[in-house]
Specification:
Largest sheet: none
Shape: elongated
Distance between the termini: 27 Å
Structural class: mainly alpha
Helix content: over 70%
Radius of gyration: 14 Å
Number of strands: 0
Length: 66
Amino acid sequence: MKAADLSKMSAKELQEKLVDLKGELFNLRFQHAINQLDNPNRIKEVKRDIARVKTVMRSMELEAAK
């Protein structure tokens, strides 16, 4: 997921995306713990997507504060 795509989303959509990503990360960690995870690199990708969403949300907050 690109940051440019995220910046076009509304605050509510970003919040929903964050919840979805956190749920996916939980499931990936659970699968990894019981050795059913096919692609362990997906955990890294999801963590980065979460960071991107949080960064865009924070930048929107700072823009609104101006």
